[in-house]
Amino acid sequence: MIPFVALLVSGLLFRLLGVIGWDYFGSWQTSLQAAVAVMLLLTASAHWGAKRKDLVQMVPPAFPNREWIVTATGLLEIAGAIGILMPATSAAASICLAILLLAMFPANIRAAKEKLTIGGRPVPKLVVRTLMQIVFLAAVLLASPAILPF
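Now predict its structure.
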């Protein structure tokens, strides 16, 4: 739930900065790109902190090297956060992030079904988790002007 709140609050803040004249955030897509970057950097930070063990538990046991998967997805989230901010790479980053979110969704399903926790807090129920995933997918795809140029 924290990544969702981070996306929403930072997106509104960046948009407000654009409205009051900070040129960098002049478009809603630029504000959304920055908000997606904030969300991704926040989620990536958990891949190496106290929540790492919880993230490893989320990876379905059928996957080998679950610790490596958590490290790799964290690095991909950081790369995506940087890539989505750069005009030359935002379209590719958006598509790659959408694929990454889809690839990580089985871990989210497992976490919800098995009532796992992250940092001692229960993960959201599957319906809520699925709706958040849809919002995250929409955000990364809408953030690239090359994908939706308006």
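The chain is about 70% helix and 5% strand.
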